[in-house]
Design a protein that fits this description.
five-stranded antiparallel beta sheet; globular; about 40% helix; five-stranded parallel beta sheet; alpha/beta
C-alpha cells in the first residue's frame, strides 16, 4: 500500500476511549499511515516524546485533563507539533476555540466521524507538506530561479508563478488537478483562469490582481470559489507574495499557492447551522415552559368542571373535547422539542398502526378531495420502543410534506408498513444502525419529486424550497432528529416530476412486555398536609383546588423564598412539598435542596413546564421523590402525590 503523508514520524492518537482509539488506529493504518496510540492523558508528554510523530489527533476531553492542558505541557517542554482536535457532538464552540490555539482542523464525533477521518488527516498532512515546500521555495528563490521552479514542481499544492511583464503564469500540475482538470497549459495567459472564478467573487479577484500588478500590495490572502470540470464549485484559499521588482520598483513576479478549503467551509456552515438550531431550541424551550403552564390551567380547570357536571349534561361532551384538544396541544409541544432533546424516559412499547390511523385522520381534515389517501398496514407488525408523541409528530411532518407536494394537481398519498430483517450488507447503505429486525414505514406521494441537486440537503435544519410564509425548513429536520434518537434510519427515493418515498426504520422489540399491570380508574386521595409552591397564580389556585378535593390539607406559596422560610419555621407541619422548577428568586431545585437539608426524609415533588437545568437524573441526585412534567391531568397529579407520600421514589 502506498504510504500517505505524515508517514515518517506517523500519526499520534491521544484518546482516552480505548475502543474508539483502536477504531481510529485501524482506519488510519488501512489508509497507509504509521500510527501510535496513548489512552492516558497523564502519560501524554512522555508518549509524544517517544513516538516523535508528525501529527497529533487530540481528543479534547481526556478524563481529568483536556486538550488545552496537554498543549500547554508540550509547549513548556519545547515541543510544537501540528494537531487536529477531536470533540464530541455539541462541542463545536470548543473546537473553534482550539482552532484559535493552532489546531489545523477539527472533527466532531458524529455518525460520519470514522469515515471522514482519513481524508481530514490527509488534507492536513498535505497542507503541512505544502508549508514546508513553500519554505523551501523561498530559500531557492534567493539562490536561483531554476531551483525555485524545481521546488514548485515538487510541492504537493496548487502553486503559481506569475510573470507580470509577459502576463503569463506558470501553474503547478497540482493546481489543475485540484480542480479535476487535465494537465495545465505550458504558460497560459494570466487572465485565462478568470472565467472559472465564481461570478460573485470575480470583482474582488480582479481588484486584487490589479493591485498586485500595480505594486499596491506586497502580499495577500483571499478566499474565493473556482469551478471544477464537473461544474461544482470549490472554495480556494489563495495566498501570494511579490518576490521580484525591477530597478524602478515595478513588480515583475508574484508567486503563491492555492489550498482547497471546501471541506473546512462545509464545517463552518454546519457550525452556523448548529448555532441556528441552538437559537431555535432556546426559543422552543421558552415557548414550551409558558405554553405548558397555560395548558395545565386549561386541563385542570376543565377536569374540575367535568367533575361537577353530571354525565347527562350536554356541556360535558364539550368539555371532553376541550381535554382532547389540550392533550393534542401537549403532544405538539413535545414534538416541538423533539429536535432539542431525547425523551427516552417516556418511551414504551407501541404499535404503529393506531398512530398512523390517527395521523391520516388528522391530515385528511385539512386536505382537498383531490388527494387519495391509501394505507397498507398489516395487523401484526410488532412493536417498537418509542415516545408516541414524537412518532406522531414525525409522521405528521412526512404526510404534510407529501400533501404540499401534491397541492396543485392532487395525487396519491400512501403509507405502508412492513417488517424487515437487515443483514450486514443491508445496513451498509445506512449510518449508525446494526443488523436485526426493523419496522419500515414508507410515506409515498405522486407529487413533483425532489431535484437531485437538493436531495442531499433536504434533511438539514432551515433548508426549504418553499416561498416565504410556507415553511421554515424544520419539518424534515425534526423527522430526522426523531428517527436518529430512536436508533433508526431515514432513506429517500425520488423521481423528479413523478414520485417521492420517505422510508423510516425503527428497531423492533424482540420480546415486548405483555404483563403490564392494569391502570386503576380511581383517583387516589389522602388527608396529609401539603406545601404547594408555584409562581403562576392560576396553577397555584388550580393545584390547591385539586388537592383539597382529594382530601388533602394544602398550604400555598407563590414565592419560593417565603415558602422556604415558612417550611423552616415549622418543618414537621408538612408531609409533602410540591414545587415548580422555574421561579423568580430561587429555582425549584434550589428550594428542594434547602428543604431536604432541613428535613432529609420529607418527600418532594418537582414540576416543570420545561427546563434545561433539571432532568430525572439530576432530580434523583437531589433526593427528589417525583419529577413530573407539565401539563398534568388530575389523575396523573393525584397518583404522583399519593406515590410520593407512600415512599415511592425516582
Amino acid at each position: 500500500m502506498e504510504k500517505r503523508s505524515a508517514a515518517a514520524g506517523g500519526v499520534f492518537i491521544l484518546e482516552d476511549d480505548a475502543d474508539l482509539a483502536f477504531l481510529i488506529q485501524k482506519n488510519l493504518e488501512r489508509s497507509g499511515y504509521k500510527v501510535s496510540v496513548c489512552t492516558d492523558g497523564s502519560k501524554a508528554l512522555s508518549a509524544v516524546v517517544d513516538a516523535s510523530p508528525d501529527l497529533i489527533l487530540l481528543d479534547y476531553q481526556l478524563g481529568k485533563t483536556n486538550g488545552e492542558k496537554i498543549l500547554e505541557q508540550l509547549r513548556q517542554a519545547g515541543i510544537s507539533l501540528p494537531f487536529i482536535i477531536i470533540t464530541g457532538c455539541g462541542d463545536e464552540r470548543t473546537a473553534v476555540e482550539m482552532m484559535k490555539l493552532g489546531a489545523r482542523d477539527y472533527l466532531i464525533k458524529d455518525a460520519h466521524f470514522i469515515d471522514m477521518l482519513p481524508s481530514v488527516v490527509r488534507k492536513v498532512s498535505e497542507a503541512l507538506e505544502t508549508e514546508k515546500a513553500l519554505e523551501e521555495t523561498r530559500a531557492a528563490l534567493r539562490k536561483s530561479e531554476e531551483r525555485f521552479k524545481l521546488a514548485i514542481e515538487a510541492a504537493n499544492e496548487g502553486l503559481y508563478d506569475w510573470d507580470i511583464p509577459s502576463n503569463s503564469v506558470y501553474l503547478s500540475p497540482k493546481l489543475c488537478t485540484q480542480l479535476e482538470y487535465g494537465p495545465c497549459a505550458e504558460r497560459p495567459a494570466a487572465d485565462a483562469w478568470e472565467p472559472f472564478v465564481h461570478p460573485d467573487d470575480r470583482s474582488k479577484v480582479s481588484a486584487l490582481k490589479t493591485a498586485l500588478a500595480a505594486g499596491e500590495k506586497d502580499a495577500y490572502q483571499m478566499e474565493f470559489r473556482l469551478k471544477t470540470s464537473s461544474g461544482d464549485w470549490k472554495w480556494i484559499m489563495s495566498r501570494g507574495k511579490v518576490v521580484e521588482r525591477d530597478g524602478q520598483g515595478s513588480v515583475r513576479r508574484v508567486v503563491g499557492a492555492h489550498t482547497d478549503i471546501t471541506y473546512r467551509k462545509k464545517l463552518e456552515f454546519q457550525l452556523r447551522q448548529a448555532h441556528k438550531m441552538e437559537a431555535a431550541a432556546t426559543l422552543a424551550g421558552g415557548v414550551a415552559h409558558e405554553f405548558n403552564n397555560i395548558l395545565g390551567i386549561i386541563i385542570g380547570n376543565t377536569e374540575l368542571a367535568i367533575d361537577d357536571i353530571p354525565e347527562w349534561n350536554p356541556a360535558r361532551r364539550n368539555l371532553d373535547e376541550v381535554i382532547k384538544a389540550s392533550l393534542r396541544a401537549k403532544d405538539v409541544v413535545r414534538g416541538l422539542l423533539s429536535f432539542r432533546r431525547k425523551s427516552e424516559g417516556r418511551r414504551k412499547p407501541i404499535k404503529i398502526g393506531p398512530i398512523i390511523e390517527d395521523v391520516l385522520k388528522l391530515i385528511k381534515t385539512s386536505t382537498s378531495d383531490a388527494i387519495d389517501f391509501r394505507k397498507n398496514i398489516p395487523e401484526n407488525t410488532g412493536e417498537i420502543l418509542a415516545e408516541p408523541s414524537e412518532i406522531h409528530q414525525a409522521l405528521v411532518n412526512l404526510c404534510a410534506n407529501a400533501v404540499f407536494a401534491m397541492r396543485e394537481n392532487g395525487g396519491i398519498l400512501e403509507v405502508s408498513v412492513r417488517t424487515l430483517e437487515l443483514d450486514e450488507t443491508d445496513v451498509s447503505q445506512y449510518t449508525d444502525i446494526f443488523p436485526g429486525r426493523y419496522l419500515s414505514i414508507s410515506v409515498s406521494d405522486t407529487g413533483h419529486g425532489i431535484p437531485s441537486e437538493i436531495k442531499g440537503r433536504i434533511l438539514e435544519p432551515y433548508f426549504t424550497t418553499r416561498e416565504v410564509g410556507e415553511g421554515v425548513g424544520m419539518g424534515l429536520a425534526v423527522v430526522h432528529g426523531v428517527v436518529k434518537s430512536h436508533n433508526g434510519a431515514v432513506s429517500i427515493y425520488s423521481e423528479p416530476g413523478k414520485t417521492t418515498t420517505f422510508k423510516i426504520l425503527f428497531p423492533l422489540i424482540s420480546n415486548p412486555d405483555k404483563n403490564e399491570s392494569p391502570v386503576s380508574e380511581s383517583i387516589p386521595g389522602g388527608a396529609e398536609s401539603l406545601l404547594l409552591v408555584d409562581d403562576e397564580a392560576g396553577l397555584l389556585e388550580l393545584g390547591k383546588s385539586m388537592l383539597e378535593r382529594l382530601g388533602y390539607r394544602v398550604t400555598v406559596q407563590s414565592n419560593p423564598v417565603q415558602a422556604l422560610a415558612l417550611f423552616k419555621s415549622r418543618p414537621h407541619t408538612f408531609d409533602l412539598v410540591v414545587t415548580d422548577m422555574t421561579m423568580p428568586g430561587m429555582t425549584g431545585a434550589e428550594l428542594a435542596r434547602e428543604i431536604k437539608a432541613t428535613r432529609p426524609e420529607i418527600p418532594v415533588i418537582l414540576c416543570t413546564g420545561f427546563s434545561e437545568q433539571i432532568d430525572s437524573q439530576k432530580a434523583r441526585a437531589l433526593g427528589i421523590s417525583k419529577y413530573i412534567e407539565k401539563p398534568l391531568n388530575m389523575r396523573e397529579f393525584a397518583v404522583s402525590v399519593r406515590n410520593a407520600l407512600d415512599g415511592e421514589t425516582l
